[in-house]
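Quick one: examine the sequence and fold tokens given here and explain what the tokens say about the fold. Here goes:
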Amino acid sequence: MCGVTVKQEPPDPQEEERDHRDRIVDQELLFRQQDVLLEQQRIHQLRNYQASMEAAGLSITFPAHRPLSRAQSSPASACFPPIVVQQEPPTKPRFTTGLVYDTLMQKHQCMCGNTNTHPEHAGRIQSIWSRLQETGLRGKCECIRGRKASLEELQTVHSEAHILLYGTNPLRQKLDSTFYTRMTPVFVRLPCGGVGVDSDTIWNEVHSSSAARLAVGSVVELCFKVAAAELKNGFAVVRPPGHHAEESTPMGFCYFNSVAIAAKLLQQRLSVSKILIVDWDVHHGNGTQQAFYSDPNVLYLSLHRYDDGNFFPGSGAPDEVGTGAGMGFNVNMAFTGGLEPPMGDAEYLAAFRTVVMPIANEFAPDVVLVSSGFDAVEGHASPLGGYRLTAKCFGYLTRQLMGLAGGRMVLALEGGHDLTAICDASEACVSALLGIEVILESEGWMKGGRGFFICFHSFATPPTIKWVVLSLG
């Protein structure tokens, strides 16, 4: 690869103009709010004055028109001293569950607009956000503002060529022509008429790079506030997802690995010693595994459908345990056996009780990050899922993980495309984060079950590899 120094891209005139318009709108809104407050105070004072005059036996009326309070020119306003409105100091965020969301992430859309053809669409995060509002959960949380991740932050996980190609608008980049010719990705024309980097992962030349960087920056902001104890825990309602994105390859709807980047930055900037990443998306997080495969300070633990490597993305075998110093700190709970019958709450709850939580407790993380895909919830047909977990099961699993790291945990949305399923699961997880009890309604969930293999590393000294065969039911 040619040596290229990554610099921040020049400002986008359209983005600057939009930001300027937003600031003007905010100022106008502030002025209107102040005017309303002044008018309410003036009316209150006039009524008190009128009542005092009537109590003294004097009749007094005021004209129906609104006094020109700004010019202090009306008789009524001359009776009272000018009102000074003092701005309230900024309120300190509540120590509660944090939420992050931004409508700009909805603009990452295929030009065809067909949500049936493209299951990873804007309605996913819009529906989840609406559900949290309708149920009152959003009001119990602290909503924080997201931001676009910098190119420097993206480079903690991804190559410079990758972030230049997918993190910037090529029309604004003045790259060496030879370099750009060699590194330009091969986009494909989709049957719908749109453009993608593959048949699944669409690309919108105007909005995709901004949306992907906003998803990363939003997850990073939330993780930093939780790690710094400004917030108790958090849930990031973001898209596009990230856990499939590798160092130099976008795939599976993903461009930048939000959770992996957040973990790297927690290590670098806040000196967080040990980070646990739990990935319960039904697809293996190949990009996250790649990022920490030799790192003993990040324990990556994934529960996913594997089917002997025949389920997307084909990685995540039980014997993929890490390398070098990171050997044993990569744990794959690889479910194999197809869909006869499909996996459900029984298998996941048993896996958590017998493998996930014992390993996690022994690792004793300082922060827990969750790649929270909900495509294992019932309602997702294969190849987007195929399993039949209940939404409340994920709330229960969230509750289990809250016992780690002093409760410092952030869930970041990954996959999940059935709107009812992902809304139900998000509601259950946020409820659990808020301390609301989650009760599993299914009876006899430990009846039956399926076996699976798991290879994991003992944290004892010297380290040893252990094979464990779990036979459920």
